[in-house]
Amino acid sequence: MAKAAAVSPATVSRVLNGTKVRADLEERVREATKALGYVPSRLATALRTRNSRLIALCIPDLSNPFFIAMASAVQRTVVEAGYSLVLFEVVPGSDEELRCFQTIIAEQMAGVITVPSHDPTRIQGLLHADISVVAVDRSGNGLDIDCFLIANEQEGYDCTNRLFDVGYHHVACISGPVGVETADHRVAGWMRAVSERVDESHAQRVVRAAYTVAAGRRAFNELIEKYPDTDAVFVANNLLSVGVIQAVISGNSHRNFGILAFGSVPYMLADLPTIQVAHLPARQIGSGAATRLLERIHGSKEAPERIIYATTVNWNLTSAEDLIEERAELGAESDFSAS
Asked: Which residues pair with residue 234 across a beta bridge?
């Protein structure tokens, strides 16, 4: 290749490794690589530098649109930077996560974007192996790493208040399992709003469930059985929201029942007039986390940051009466129906 480009082998090496050289020399080397069909050996590079051009993304649920959108943004960012993405579906804190981290260390991957578990020693193992780490969705449990998060408690508070503001009186909450940071924080926000707006008895109107559609249906039915006067619910997860919406529709007995879904739901469900959706900035989080990880891989020594994002809610209704009027304009029946 050096002969084809009429430069020294050292110049070829510098160009291929990203070291700055004169523009005309770089252009000649690039033209030679195209003409010769040269593809660099990542294995050889990893052996020489003791680091690969692989980046790992560890997320807990590939069926969740939030994580799918995040993964898409991460991949776009790292590929544009000349890296490849390795995707792992692992539940934080599980044995699979431990094996995943062991693989990342064994393969000497350049960096990791992960949803942290409660056990900080696992990420410490990556850091001790000189692998850059950025946390998403949940905090780093006191570790000195960058974190890209949603303002979960504040968003839970704001979303719950919105349901009260449009005229609902008995606002309940359905959220994820106890002990999951995001679920706990969203419940805390709901609890704070409820404590300010109604009497303390309403603080019991919360059901915790696994992150599945079926669990959302069961949680809603449990909630209504215990508190039949509930007229609205803040659902703190998108998969749970789908289950709740299905339960409301199939029940056909909750006229103008208000739902605020935290996270995107299918368009056919989001179009129902009494459903509002808090859209999560999944792509922004993914892109931001990947960009920061690349900076760390390339030697950035700036102090780690907690980057906090807000949701976006398209509020097109101002009161419970508006909900009723809009349903009437659409020709809807008094109760939800599958049609």
From this structure: 173, 260
Q: Count the alpha carbons within 13 Å of 52 in the hemisphere toward its beta carbon.
A: 18
What CATH number does the domain located at 48-150+283-309 have?
3.40.50.2300
Residue of 297, 283, 299 whose CA lies nearest to 148: 283
- Count CB-CB contacts under 10 A for residue 32: 19
Average pLDDT over residues 70-81: 96
Q: What is the pLDDT of residues 285-305, one digit of tens each?
A: 999 999 999 999 999 999 999
* pLDDT greater than 50 at residue 255: yes
DSSP letters of 205-246?
-EEE--SSHHHHHHHHHHHHHH-TT--EEEE-SHHHHHHHHH
pLDDT-derived band at 166, boundaries 50, 70, 90: confident
Residue that wins the pLDDT comparison between 218 and 319: 218
Kindly give, in sequence order, each residue whose CB lies less than 8 Å from that of residue 11, ignoring residues fewer than 6 positions away: 2, 5, 21, 25, 29
Question: What pairing do the DSSP bridges indicate for beta strands 312-313 and 275-279?
Answer: antiparallel
Cross-strand pairs, 172: 233
Fold of 152-281+313-329: Rossmann fold (3.40.50)
In this prediction, residues 154-167 reach a mean pLDDT of 94
